C-alpha cells in the first residue's frame, strides 16, 4: 500500500478515540447536572472538580490529535 | 483562489536579536519578547495592585488579592499546610501560564505556551521538583508511592511497573495537554480566519461570527488550562509530601 495513503487512513482511524472522549465529557456534565438537581446547595462547591474532570478528559482527545498529526507528518 | 496563508505560520520562532554562546543559540526571539511582557505585566499587577494597602481594596488591589487568595486556597486545600511552603512556585506557574495563554489571543501576537518545549520545560520542572521533594522528605519510603494500599502481594509485579510508568507519564501528559489545547485552538482560529477572507464580503460574516464565538471559548480554555496545570501540580505535590495518606 502506498505509504501516503496508509498515513491518511491511520490519521482517520485515530479520530475514533474522540467517540470515547465525547461519552466521557457527556458523562461528567450529566452527572453534575443530575447531582445538582438533587442537591443544589453542594453544586457550586463541586464545580471546580467538574472543570478539572472535563480538562483531563479533553486532554485524551488532544492526545488522539497529536497521534494523528504524528502519523501524518512525522512518520 | 486567493492565497489562504499557512495557519501554522503563527507558531514560527523569529530571531529578533541573534546571540550565540559557543555553539548554543540563545537568541532573543519573538517568544522571548512575550515572556518578558508576561513577567512585566504580572509583576506590575501585583506590585501596583498591592501598594495602596487599603483595608477596603480598590479595583486593582481587589484583583491582586483575588489572584493571591484563589491560588492560596487551591494550594492549602490540595497540598495541605506543608504545601504552602511551595506557594510562590505554584503562584508563579499559574500567573505565567494564564497570562501566556491570554496574551496569545491578541491578534498578531504569539502564544508562548503553544510550543511543546516551553510547556515541557515547566512540566519537567514540576515533575523533577516534586520527585526531589518526595525523596528528600521520605527517603526510600518514597517508593511506597508506587504500591497502592490493600493490594494482594501476587498482583504487585504487575501493578508496580504500571504505577511507575503512569508516574513517569505525568510530565508528558501535563505538558501535552497545555500545548495541544493552545496549538489546536489557535490553528482553528487561523483556519476560520482564512475562510473569512476567502468568502469575501457576501458570505464572510458566517465564519466571522464563528470566530467570535470561538475566541470566547478560547478565553475560557486559556483560563481553564492554567487552572488545570496548576491544580495538577498541587495534587502531584500532595502525593509527594503525604505519600498516600
Strand fraction of chain B equals under 5%
Provide the domain count of chain B: 1
Low-confidence stretches of chain A: none
Count the beta strands of chain A: 0
What are the secondary-structure elements of chain B, in order, as H or E? EEEEHHHHHHH
Biggest pleated-sheet summary of chain B: 2 strands, antiparallel
Number of separate helices of chain B: 7
Quote the average pLDDT of chain A.
Answer: 93
Radius of gyration of chain A: 18 Å
Oligomer: heterodimer
Helix/strand structural class of chain A? mainly alpha
Structural class of chain B: mainly alpha
Notes on the protein architecture:
The complex is a heterodimer of chains A (75) and B (245). Chain A has a single domain (3-73), classed as F1F0 ATP synthase subunit C (F1FO ATP Synthase), CATH 1.20.20.10. Chain A is 87% helix and 0% strand. Chain A has 3 helices and no strands. Chain B has 7 helices and 4 strands. Chain B is globular. In chain B, 27% of the residues are buried. Chain B starts with 14 loop residues before the first strand and ends with a helix. Chain B has 245 residues and is mainly alpha-helical. Chain B has helices at 30-50, 59-83, 87-103, 116-138, 156-168, 170-203, 205-242, and strands spanning 15-17, 20-21, 24-25, 28-29. At the A-B interface, helix 3 of A face helix 6 and helix 7 of B.
Amino acid at each position: 500500500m502506498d505509504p501516503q495513503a496508509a498515513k491518511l487512513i491511520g490519521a482517520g482511524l485515530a479520530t475514533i478515540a474522540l467517540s470515547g472522549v465525547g461519552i466521557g465529557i457527556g458523562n461528567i456534565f450529566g452527572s453534575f447536572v443530575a447531582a445538582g438537581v438533587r442537591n443544589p446547595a453542594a453544586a457550586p462547591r463541586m464545580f471546580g472538580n467538574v472543570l478539572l474532570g472535563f480538562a483531563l478528559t479533553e486532554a485524551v482527545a488532544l492526545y488522539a490529535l497529536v497521534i494523528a498529526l504524528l502519523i501524518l507528518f512525522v512518520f | 483562489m486567493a492565497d489562504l496563508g499557512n495557519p501554522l505560520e503563527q507558531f514560527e520562532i523569529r530571531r529578533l536579536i541573534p546571540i550565540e554562546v559557543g555553539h548554543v543559540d540563545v537568541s532573543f526571539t519573538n517568544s522571548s519578547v512575550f515572556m518578558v511582557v508576561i513577567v512585566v505585566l504580572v509583576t506590575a499587577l501585583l506590585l501596583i495592585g498591592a501598594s495602596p494597602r487599603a483595608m477596603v481594596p480598590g479595583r486593582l488591589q481587589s484583583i491582586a488579592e483575588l489572584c493571591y487568595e484563589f491560588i492560596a486556597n487551591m494550594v492549602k486545600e490540595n497540598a495541605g499546610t506543608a504545601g504552602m511552603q511551595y506557594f510562590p512556585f505554584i503562584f508563579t506557574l499559574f500567573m505565567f501560564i494564564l497570562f501566556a495563554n491570554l496574551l496569545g489571543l491578541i491578534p498578531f501576537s504569539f502564544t508562548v505556551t503553544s510550543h511543546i518545549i516551553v510547556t515541557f520545560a515547566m512540566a519537567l520542572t514540576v515533575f523533577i521538583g516534586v520527585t526531589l521533594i518526595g525523596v528528600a522528605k521520605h527517603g526510600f519510603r518514597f517508593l511506597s508511592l508506587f504500591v497502592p494500599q490493600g493490594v494482594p502481594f501476587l498482583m504487585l509485579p504487575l501493578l508496580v511497573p504500571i504505577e511507575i510508568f503512569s508516574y513517569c507519564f505525568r510530565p508528558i501528559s501535563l505538558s501535552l495537554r497545555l500545548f495541544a489545547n493552545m496549538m489546536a485552538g489557535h490553528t482553528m482560529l487561523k483556519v476560520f480566519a482564512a475562510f473569512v477572507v476567502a468568502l469575501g464580503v457576501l458570505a464572510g460574516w458566517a465564519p466571522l461570527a464563528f470566530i467570535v464565538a470561538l475566541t470566547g471559548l478560547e478565553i475560557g480554555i486559556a483560563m481553564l488550562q492554567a487552572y488545570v496545570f496548576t491544580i495538577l501540580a498541587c495534587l502531584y505535590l500532595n502525593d509527594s509530601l503525604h505519600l498516600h495518606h
